[in-house]
Specification:
There is one protein chain. By secondary structure, this protein is of the alpha+beta class. It has one domain (11-152): Immunoglobulin-like (Sandwich), CATH 2.60.40.3080. The protein is built from two helices and seven strands; from the N terminus they run ααβββββββ. A hairpin with a 4-residue loop joins strand 3 (94-101) and strand 4 (106-110).
């Protein structure tokens, strides 16, 4: 049988699994931003405190968090973005911003000036279009937000 991108199993080699995941990643990074645009989905705002270790489990938990506190309100925009810059606005002072891929790889970090509540982050021009997590650390908590970057 030939190569099946979604058909790796327990007895597959690491190379077969890696090839399948690379293929799926290519398809998703091409399709998702276009579907987002075609479906005319709105920009979404998320706020969610995360307690515990900085893991992918915490990322998933932060996205499922539903109780929003007024003092923890954080906005990330524009999303989707057509240029590699994003603006983060918070009621609490921003301490650190980190940009992660969906598989948890840290790409970029920045530390805003003390007492910054509104920060525009200019990311490198060569940033690959796709979906990212932005970890926002304030004086009160840490939040993970989804951010979508489309091709310019």
């Amino acid at each position: 049988m030939g190569f099946q991108p979604w058909g790796w199993y327990a007895n597959s080699t690491p190379a077969q699994k890696a090839a399948a995941l690379a293929y799926i990643d290519t398809i998703m990074s091409f399709s998702l931003p276009r579907l987002f645009k075609v479906l005319n989905l709105p920009t979404q705002y998320y706020t969610s405190p995360v307690v515990g270790q900085d893991t992918l489990i915490d990322l998933a938990a932060s996205l499922a968090w539903s109780s929003l506190s007024a003092e923890g309100r954080i906005h990330l925009y524009p999303s989707p973005a057509t240029s590699p810059l994003l603006t983060v606005e918070s009621v609490g002072a921003l301490h650190r911003l980190s940009l992660y891929t969906f598989d948890g790889r840290l790409l970029y970090e920045t530390t805003p000036a003390p007492n910054t509540h509104l920060y525009t982050w200019y990311l490198p021009e060569h940033l690959t279009p796709g979906y990212y997590f932005v970890r926002v650390q304030t004086e009160a908590h840490t939040t993970h937000l989804r951010w979508c970057y489309l091709s310019p």
